[in-house]
Design brief:
The structure holds two protein chains of two kinds. The radius of gyration of chain A is 19 Å and the shape is globular. In chain A, strands 2-1-5-3-4 form a five-stranded mixed β-sheet, covered by helices on one side. A three-stranded antiparallel β-sheet of chain A has the order 6-7-10. A two-stranded antiparallel sheet of chain A has the order 8-9. Chain A has two domains: 3-77, Ubiquitin-like (UB roll); 85-209, Alpha-Beta Plaits, CATH 3.30.70. Chain A contains six helices and ten strands; from the N terminus they run E-E-H-E-E-E-H-H-E-E-H-E-E-H-E-H. Chain A is α+β, with helices and mostly antiparallel strands. Chain A has helices spanning 21-27, 79-95, 110-117, 153-160, 197-201, 221-232; strands spanning 3-8, 11-16, 51-54, 61-62, 73-75, 134-135, 141-144, 167-170, 177-180, 207-209. Chain B has a single domain, classed as 3-Layer(aba) Sandwich (Rossmann fold), CATH 3.40.50. In chain B, 31% of the residues lie in helices and 21% in strands. Chain B contains six helices and seven strands. Chain B has a five-stranded parallel β-sheet with strand order 2-1-3-5-7, sandwiched between helices. In chain B, strands 4-6 form a two-stranded antiparallel sheet. Chain B is globular, with a radius of gyration of 17 Å. Classes of the chains: A alpha+beta, B alpha/beta. Bound molecules: iron/sulfur cluster (3 copies) and FE2/S2 (inorganic) cluster. One iron/sulfur cluster (SF4) binds at residues 98-100, 103, 105-106, 109, 111-112, 147, 204-205 of chain A.
Chain lengths: 241, 180
């Protein structure tokens, strides 16, 4: 496989040609913040948190869906990028209802961690206080749309790993939300196998285990990583392959 | 150097951040020696004074009284600190905002959910009228320093106040700004 040489933050880095800028950076130990990216499922470039600067282009590019190329010169943490990223996180906080102090994911949340990383000590945009619902119809899990950041990690993990495709997106603009089956209560879904992968994949307190209370919802991402790594290495039996 | 004129204000919050302030334990004694506490729910002073150097504001702006007081506080203070998540984000106090109108909130709390004496409090001049929407402090007035946390723990409070005693500006980063 062809190897490409590029520079990230003025460091010479080599990567396989199939790799993304995000892969190459991570292999080199260079941190790029992400939210919609989840190891082991496809990338969709939705959250724009991983934006990087590439010399010769004025447009910022999402590292998780940009393939490496020979001679690329990349900057991952300029002042401009830091400003954008903080703005993105502020937007996410302003357009949902994030009340960390009473959230199941308090202290264990990727969004909250990102806010800390971006130095977000307050949200300068006006809070929207949208009216959103909570679905507790599933026996074991619940979804609180107030905390959902529309990253679609649940959609992808359920479709690509569990192959149930229970989750999907519905609505446009600020009415966008995730749905189960034909936009019906999760507990009435025929396709859901109750495997819990969406719960592990969800970066926030949106999907949680029934009965968990403030700060209790830790996502056991390692279980998911075990499955996805095994699949990558071909140690996972796929029916029909 | 003149003693720092410190005030603390309690708007729409649970007073947990003030409780946390008391958690400063023996450092409170050091602090007390270096400041004049000129206004606080912990002190019996009726009118918010002029010329306050630093004020810690706990709570969101939730009713007419809060609104009037926060404007006065801003006018009369040099450094205003948004103290705790309710002040910084609206937090629990703003949980009612998605319901939009205050009438249904009052009805739910004081009529439907009440066990005894179910009536909506109505004492003009004594019980302040709720604002339609609860707002974080910086949505109403200019804020100089943000001190998040629910409650803001004592270490963070100290990290914010200590530099101010020597007229330096605190710089809170990392875990010190985590919400929740
Ligand atoms: S999902 Fe995360 S950011 Fe949102 S309220 Fe819960 S802990 Fe806070
Ligand atoms: S529990 Fe499993 S099958 Fe059910 S929605 Fe979540 S990922 Fe899909
Ligand atoms: S429920 Fe969780 S994983 Fe699914 S889109 Fe919302 S935040 Fe992402
Ligand atoms: S992580 Fe790349 S766009 Fe979300």
């Amino acid at each position: 496989m062809a190897v490409k040489t590029l520079t990230i933050n003025d460091r010479l880095v080599s990567a396989r040609e199939s790799e993304t800028v995000l892969d190459a950076a991570r292999d080199a130990g260079i941190h790029i913040p992400t939210l919609c990216h989840l190891e082991g499922v496809s990338n969709i470039g939705a959250c724009r948190l991983c934006l990087v600067e590439i010399s010769g282009s004025n447009k910022l590019q999402p590292a998780c869906v940009t393939k490496v190329a020979e001679g690329m010169e990349i900057q991952t943490n300029t002042e401009r990028l830091q400003k954008y990223r903080r703005m993105i996180i502020e937007l996410l906080f302003a357009e949902g209802n994030h009340i960390c102090s009473v959230c199941v994911a308090n202290g264990n949340c990727e969004l909250q961690n990102l806010a800390v990383e971006m130095g977000m000590n307050h949200v300068s945009l006006a809070y929207q206080f949208p009216q959103r619902t909570v679905d507790l119809s599933h026996d074991r899990f619940g979804i609180d749309h107030n905390r959902c950041v529309l990253c679609t990690r649940c959609v992808r993990v359920c479709d690509e790993i569990e192959a149930a495709h229970t989750w999907d997106m519905a609505g446009r603009g600020h009415n966008s939300h995730v749905i189960t089956d034909l936009n019906q209560p999760w507990g009435t879904s025929d396709s859901c196998t109750s495997c819990g992968k969406c719960l592990m994949a969800c970066p926030t307190g949106a999907i949680f285990a029934q009965g968990s209370t403030v700060g209790e919802m830790t996502k056991e991402r390692s279980k998911l990583e075990f499955i996805t790594t095994a699949r990558k290495k071909g140690e996972w039996l796929v029916v029909g392959s | 150097m003149n003693k720092l004129k410190l005030a603390t204000v309690w708007l729409g919050g649970c007073s947990g951040c003030h409780m946390s302030f008391l958690d400063l334990d023996e450092w409170l004694l050091d602090l007390a020696a270096q400041i004049d506490l000129v206004y606080s729910p912990l002190a019996d002073i009726k009118e918010y004074p002029e010329g306050v150097d630093v004020v810690l504001v706990e709570g969101a702006v939730a009713n007419e009284d809060n609104l009037e007081l926060i404007k006065k506080v801003r006018d009369r203070s040099n450094i205003l600190i948004s103290f705790g998540d309710c002040a910084v984000t609206g937090n629990v106090t703003a949980l009612r905002n998605p319901l939009r109108d205050t009438e249904s909130v009052l009805q739910r709390c004081y009529l439907e959910a009440a066990d005894i004496q179910n009536q909506i409090p109505h004492q003009p001049g004594i019980v302040p009228t709720l604002l339609e929407q609860v707002q974080p402090v910086h949505a109403i007035v200019n804020v100089d320093i943000y001190l998040p946390g629910c409650p803001t723990d004592a270490d963070r409070i100290r990290a914010a106040l200590e530099p101010l005693l020597t007229r330096e500006t605190p710089n809170l980063t990392g875990e010190q700004i985590r919400f929740g």
